[in-house]
Design a protein that fits this description.
Elements (H helix, E strand, L loop, with lengths): L7 E5 L3 E5 L20 H4 L15 H21 L9 H14 L3 E2 L12 E4 L2 E3 L13 E10 L2 E10 L5 H20 L22 E4 L2 E3 L5 E3 L6 E3 L5 E3 L2 E5 L4 E3 L3
Helix pairs in contact: 2-3
Protein name: Methionine aminopeptidase chloroplastic mitochondrial isoform x2
Organism: Lasius niger
GO molecular function: metal ion binding; metalloaminopeptidase activity
Length: 262
């Protein structure tokens, strides 16, 4: 459980006017019905592996399973926009999305991954990533990322999008637009034999047909440094600047790439 902390308004000539977010109360972890197939960490919180060192080359049956999980994640993410308005909480969003995922026979991938307590990640304003849904009411002018990942037929489908709460200032809108352009530009680069380092900082491998991976730019209005809060997950900018992040899962094809989470 988290304790309540203050939230105050930040007014900076270059960053804009918005609320600085700190954790609020987190509700109890929800239970997943026993009939829902779970990943290895569903009960233990410890995954059998955190993923291959390099992206695996998937065959057609694996790619079809990826398409199904990604299609479901995207479908659910698109329904989030209608839920967002001032006064609702990210805990409410989490419960709604959790029910949608379970209702489609899938498992919410973030839940219990290394102990993560919720079914989605919600990162508001100065929270860069891995925000835990809580009881803070969304405020007019907030921007937030909602990250939806589902486990279906043995594969994870992963995507995220930015949302605006009510009327957002110009600086916030520009931040979201630039992040969208960064993701679009990165996806356009993806094709066979392209170096991963052209869209990422520290991996020197090449893209090959059959590889699937996510692209998720996270942009800050200010400094790049973040701090991880006491919950072990929430990453906030050290200068309280806002961030935006957007994510798609892509498949490398014979002559380019396919966005699986459109």
């Amino acid at each position: 459980m988290k304790i309540f902390r203050f939230v105050h308004t930040y007014n900076n000539n270059s960053f804009g006017k918005y609320a600085i977010v700190r954790p609020w109360l987190v509700s109890e972890k929800v239970v997943v019905p026993a009939y829902i197939p779970q990943p290895s960490y569903g009960k233990s919180s410890i995954p059998e592996r955190d993923g291959p060192v390099t992206p695996e080359i998937k065959d057609e049956s694996q790619i079809e399973c990826m398409r199904q999980s990604c299609k479901l994640a995207s479908h659910i993410l698109h329904q989030v926009d209608a839920l967002i308005k001032p006064g609702i909480t990210t805990d409410f969003l989490d419960k709604q999305v959790h029910d949608m995922i379970i209702g489609n026979g899938a498992y919410p991938s973030p839940l219990n991954y290394h102990g993560f307590p919720k079914s989605i990640c919600t990162s508001v304003n100065n929270v860069a990533c891995h925000g835990i849904p809580d009881s803070r009411p969304l405020q007019e002018g907030d921007i937030l990322n909602v990250d939806v990942t589902v486990y279906l037929n043995g594969y994870h489908g992963d995507c995220s999008a930015m949302f605006q709460v009510g009327e957002v200032d110009l600086e916030g809108k520009q931040l979201i637009t630039i992040t969208e352009l960064c993701l679009k530009s990165a996806i356009e680069i993806c094709k066979p034999n392209q170096h991963f380092c052209n869209i990422a900082n520290d991996y020197s491998g090449r893209m090959k047909p059959g590889m699937t991976f996510t692209i998720e730019p996270v942009l800050s209005q200010g400094m790049t440094q973040i701090e991880i809060l006491e919950d072990g997950w929430t990453a906030c900018t050290v200068d309280n600047s806002r961030t935006a992040q957007i994510e798609h899962t892509v498949l490398i094809t014979d002559d380019g790439c396919e966005i699986l989470t459109l």
